Amino acid sequence: MSRIRALDRYVFSEFWKIFMATALGFPVLVNVIDVTDNLDKYINQKLSIGRIALSYVYWLPDSMFMVLPAAVLFATVFAIGGFTRHSEIAAAKASGISFFRFIAPIFVGAVVATLLGLALAELAPITNKKRMDILQGARGRSVATDRYNFAYAADGGRVYKIGGLHVNEGGIDGIVIERKGKDADYPSYVLSAVDARNTPGRGWMLHKGAMHVIPDTMRNTTYEFDSLTDRHFVEAPKQLTLSQKAPTDMGFRELGRFITSMERSGAEVNELRVERMLKLAIPVTSMVIFLFGASLATSNQRGGAAYGVGLSLATTVVFLMLIQLTKAIGGKGMIPADFAAWLPSIIFGTLGLVMFSRVRS
Asked: Where do the structural domains in the chain lie, given as residue ranges?
């Protein structure tokens, strides 16, 4: 038993070293390319080297999130390939350990990568916001002074639906604020007002409106008001223009609340639904891609390391292209949005299972 545990630790450590090198190496390479292309712009914005470096540190969770399946693929192919070249798998089989049992720690590594991906999916929106605060805060560029008929996803699960925003005047014409609650102690509510005015340092004053408190599906208490100060409405007029959240800047639950609010307004939300489900589908693909990578690794010895690199890169490119294709198709409503997000995993999972079943144990 101790011999098996030592073997498991060895197999896992070899996989994990390659996985981490790939999961960090690809994003760092992308960061280096991006900073090379944009360094002049950052200097013109008078950003310090420290602030530039910090913005790229904040970008790492988002860039790592997309490459996790590729990192699992590379680590699986090269770890198993190395074991095969050094006859370690043959020695394990001679000792009565099957191929499937031998690579079980690699599957555990793929599960850990999936959990890491789910964590990054929630962390990335936070760090993306910090990165944009650094870059947008230094731009000092002019923004549109008026904006009409848009929704803004704020913190705390709140969504603002704004009829007209006037930045220079610090005013809003027609606003609805929605918050999704949990229970009677933290109820949902809908706050609507004819207009709102912003006073620097004091926040927003809403005029002539009503607040509907909805603790559950059976109750709805309405309060009318002539004026009201919403202490949670802390965004300045300019921020409502510059810092509107993109789907990548919202976590799974927050994006779900935003989609629900947009649906009530009759907006098209297929693209948002695909983006939301990809926050789950991409991490789970790490386990799916393990099957594909293990099958590839058993056939890459004919061309050595170069063959393995080529297969891994080609598979990664096809996977990423498939995600973009299904995202576009799902966004247009040609297939259900949730299904579109999972389709690449289904395709690769099916191929992986077929190939994996043919591997000799």
From this structure: 2-138+272-357, 146-268
Query: Per-residue confidence of the chain (361 residues) as pLDDT tens digits?
Result: 566 788 889 999 999 999 999 999 888 888 888 888 888 888 887 888 888 889 889 999 988 988 888 899 889 888 888 888 888 888 888 888 888 888 889 999 999 999 999 999 989 888 988 888 787 765 544 456 788 888 887 877 788 889 999 988 889 999 999 988 877 788 889 999 999 999 887 889 999 999 999 887 777 889 999 999 888 888 888 878 764 567 777 888 888 888 887 776 666 788 888 988 989 998 988 888 888 788 777 765 555 556 666 777 787 788 888 888 988 898 888 889 889 999 988 888 888 788 777 777 6
Q: Are 232 and 242 in contact (CB under 8 A)?
A: no
**What is the C-alpha to C-alpha distance for residues 27 and 124, in angstroms, rounded to an integer?**
13
pTM: 0.69
Q: What is the CA radius of gyration of the chain?
A: 25
Three-state SS annotation for 298-356: CCCCCCHHHHHHHHHHHHHHHHHHHHHHHHHHHHCCCCCHHHHHHHHHHHHHHHHHHHH
Query: Which bin fits 141, alpha (ψ -120 to 50), beta or left (φ > 0)?
Result: beta
Q: Which of 173, 183, 268, 257 is nearest to 219 (CA)?
A: 183
Neighbours of 339 (CB within 10 A): 14
Name the DSSP letter for residue 155.
G
Of 215, 351, 246, which Cα lies nearest the Cα of 296? 351
- Dihedral angle at the C-alpha atoms of 140, 54, 283, 125, nearest 10 degrees? -40
Q: Hey, what are 216's tokens? A: 């559950």
Say if CB 298 and CB 78 are below 8 A apart.
Answer: no
